[in-house]
Automatic annotation (TrEMBL):
Fibronectin type-III domain sequence ranges: 46-142
Annotated Gene3D superfamilies: Immunoglobulins (2.60.40.10)
Record-linked SUPFAM superfamilies: Fibronectin type III
SMART domains attached to this UniProt entry: FN3
Family matches, as PROSITE patterns: FN3
Any Pfam family matching the protein: fn3
Organism field: Donacobius atricapilla
Listed InterPro entries: E3_ligase_FN3/SPRY (IPR050617), FN3_dom (IPR003961), FN3_sf (IPR036116), Ig-like_fold (IPR013783)
Protein's recorded name: FSD2 protein
Amino acid sequence: RLEEFLKKEVDLELSTLPDFQERVIDVSEVEQLMNSINTVPAPCAPVINPQAPNAATGTSLRVCWGLFSDDTVECYQLCYTPVSNERHSDEPAEHTLKVKETYCTITDLLPNTQYEFWVSALNASGISPPSERAVYVTAPSPPTIKNKKIRSCENAALVCWESRDINPVDSYTVEL
């Protein structure tokens, strides 16, 4: 019987069409959740270090900072401005540098001048809040010896010099 049944052609046409409900599934919440899993959060604010001894010359400063979290950082944005009551018209009020490391040596600065520094961390998600501000000072420029005022005798010498710095210098060291 089975063999005979399989030899027959069977008409599978349905007399009535099935009635399906069209459902629209909202997956936006799932997409947001999946995207948030793959997103790196914006970094926390870095911490700028105070000026280290011997980190300055008359025209340069070495500035260091740290990031005390496991944040992913692509680069840092270091900003600085001279601390002064009077502005030079040709000098911009604020300078910004992009830095890959957690330190930077800034050159072409004025001698015996205070500079205020702050830093932010950047990654694909955005920029961190800025660090606290730190004040660094460049070393004074060397004084000019007044050759015409030098006097000496058997047991003493008088040497006069003048400072080229606008800000007062704390002390001088005279070497013989």
